[in-house]
Each structure stands twice: as C-alpha cells, then as structure tokens.
Amino acid sequence: MRQDMTRSRAEEILDLPERYGMADVRAAFKRLALEYHPDNAERNGISKKFAQRRMTEVNKAYAHLRSLLAETDVTLLHRDLVGAASGRRGVGVHYAPTGTTRVTTQVDDALFWDEQGNPRSAQATNAANAAADAPGHALRRLLLGPVLLRALVVLALAVVWWRLFPFVGSNAARYDLSAQAPLTELADALAAVVYPSYFVLYELVTGHVSGTLREVANGLVSLVTREHVEVHGGGAYRSDASSLVEGQVYPLLELPLAVWLLVRGMPTIEGQAQLAYLVPGALVTVDLLIGFFGSGVAMGLSRWLAALIERRYVTLRMALLKRCGQWGSAASGRPEAR
Q1: Which residue, among 47, 21, 4, has the nearest Cα to 55 in the 3D structure?
Q2: Which domains does the chain have, with CATH numbers?
Q3: Average pLDDT, stretch 262-267?
Q4: What pTM does this model have?
Q5: I need a labelling partner for 258 at 20 to 30 A (CA). Which of 79, 112, 145, 161 fits?
C-alpha cells in the first residue's frame, strides 16, 4: 500500500536522531545512498528492485525535509513522533516549528523553544507553563510562590539594611563620618549605604532574588516528589537566575568597589601593595564609566552568563518535566489548530 510522504515518515526513513538539522539530513542521505544506490546495491548484496524502491523513498524523504527546513527557517528540528509507529506515541504537547498546531506526542517538547532557548511563540510558552501546572498543590504554590517567598526575602534584606546602614539606629557609632575621618572610613560607609539599599530596592522591584531561590527549591522538590508544579508569577517563562545576572545596574555596584580600591591605594601604602589596589581600582573605574553607556566588561560578562544560564535552564526544565511525565497535563489530547 502506497504511503504519502510525511515529516514523521521521512524522519523514519532517514533514521534521524531526536534532534537534527540539515547537516544530519545530508549525512543520512549520503549514508543510505552508499548502501541502496543502484550502482552500489549489487556489491552490497541487495536486489536491484528493492534497492530502487528504497532509494526512491530516500530521495523523497530527503527532498521533503530539505524543503521543510528551508520553509521554517530553523536550524534545528525535533523528531515528530505523531505520525510514527503507534508504540512511539505518548502523552504530551507538541508544537510545529511555527508554534501553530498542537498534537499529542512523546517528544520532550524542546519545540516550545528554539535551540537558543527562546520561546517560539507566546502561545507555545503559555501552553508549556500550563502543562507544568499540576493540580492539587495550593500549599506548594503558596510556600514557593512569587508572593510569600518574595516578601520573606525582602524582609531578610531589610534586616541586613537595618544592621548595616550608617544612618539608622546605633550604626553611626560604627563609622567615623566626621570631617577628620580617614578616607577608608568614608569608603566603608559608602559601601554600607549602597549595597544594602540597592538589593532591598532591587528585590522589591524585580523579585529576581527570591525567584532564583524558588527555581532551585521547586526543582529539588520536583525531583523528590516526581511532580513539577508551576509556581512562576505568570507571563512568558524566563529563568529568574538569568534575569538576576543580567538585570543588575553594574556601574552602580562597581562604584563603591572602585572607591574602596582607590582609597586603599593612596600614598599611605607604598610599593607593590599600593599597585595591588590602584591598578584594579583604575580598571573598575574605567569599566563603570563605560557601563553607563551600556557596555563594559561586567555588563558583557553578565549578558554572556545570563544567556548560558537561560539555555541550560530551559534544558533542565524540559528534562524535569519529561521525567515527571507531565507534558500535556493540561492538554485535551486532541490535535488543535491555533
């Protein structure tokens, strides 16, 4: 019986891995051509009739996937197990590379995101979050949710601020802020003003500190209970850890450090010890000045590290959901056009 060429059929014919790109398609085509091409079939012990039929399938599969990769404009695809053998089907939510259709499949659903960890569409991201939203876990969402945990972290940071800020309580006695005070005392006071105040305000505005703690705690709980519960605040899912790294105002954070290094490198210290403070202090000063224009070493490293964390986080989260068997827990199980 003749079978029309489909994506899953083409992937099956070429025996492609779960994740593949155009290079894998070409390699599979060359490998099969060496085996089934009429010029090679006889010496490979394959009948000419069978080799011709098999090579026709290989050519059609190659043409189909080459066209698909060109049309979707993506560099990495994941095996579409929907139309494969029944034994390979399972519960899950699967999106086409364009994020326009939904069907049930066992694929780990990296197709919610591209190979760089970016959402393919807002609809796909929302459905991925819904798939992780296991019912019956109100207490877990409360304890690890974006409200209670954030309030606790803000409270802890506020206590640190109260204990360190030079102008509240009895803290002033710990710092000599008189006109005759040595510059080192003023540098220490500047750090005590900037850092505690900054992180309290940062957590109040963004919630990324508590969000990072929530991601770690929820991942550990999910591994123990083998059931993942969505406790994100809503909207497009992005790792709070990557946001925490990338979202800092690095020039402001570098300012007290630069002052501290330069003050300690003043002429009161001589020789190599002085250079050990002055050189880093000068470098940090230059970097913070450049940082106000959106560049600099600190900001560049933060963007690189945030992208690395985000890609890794997406991979870990998908692996966790696959391990918990929760892809499509909120799906109807029927193909649905969007």
Answers
A1: 47
A2: 1-79 (1.10.287), 138-323 (no CATH)
A3: 80
A4: 0.60
A5: 161
